[in-house]
DNA-binding NarL/FixJ family response regulator
Amino acid sequence: MTMRVVLAEDSVLLREGLVRLLEEADATVLAAVGDGTALVAAVEEHQPEVAVVDVRMPPSFTDEGLRAALEIRRRFPSVGILVLSQYVEESYATDLLEAGGGVGYLLKDRVSRLADLSDALGRVAAGGTVLDPEVVSALLTKRRRRDPLAELSPREREVLELMAQGRTNIAIGRLMVITQGAVEKHISSIFTKLGLPPSSDDHRRVMAVLAWLEG
């Protein structure tokens, strides 16, 4: 069955080219617009299966496309979102993926193969996730770069895991066969590496365990 699509791309030439490309990929382009506001209106009017959108659009050329995509996801959760961007926008890709399934993020220079584009549209419409290999690589690099647990030594990770199990410092020392002073030294280092300074508002031990669980 032909895929029903609305498209948002601010460049007239690119927009016309994408319309032809989408139609060749067996999609019916119900509307092709130039900004995020018009995209949301087009989705509301036509109720497509997939909204294809660029990230950077007027007026500021920063994240208008993403914000429109997130609004569409909020108001029309059954509509798939396929982002076609010139660049890998790490934070934008993360925000989009956190919105749930039925999303895709492809680089524009990778969509020249009709079979790949058609497959991406179908998977997104069915609630799946489609990511360009460069996007996956960038997100993994970002996670490694920003993961505070990566800075912990193997010994500190072991201490933190036992903390997550609810063990006291005495129990940790007994299980690891180290002194209580050594346990306290490891815990102090963990707090420092996780960016948990002394605070009267937050329990640092609990915050450290949460960081371990999230990691």
Q: What stands out?
A: The chain has ten helices and six strands. The radius of gyration is 23 Å. The domain at 154-214 is CATH 1.10.10.10 (Arc Repressor Mutant, subunit A).
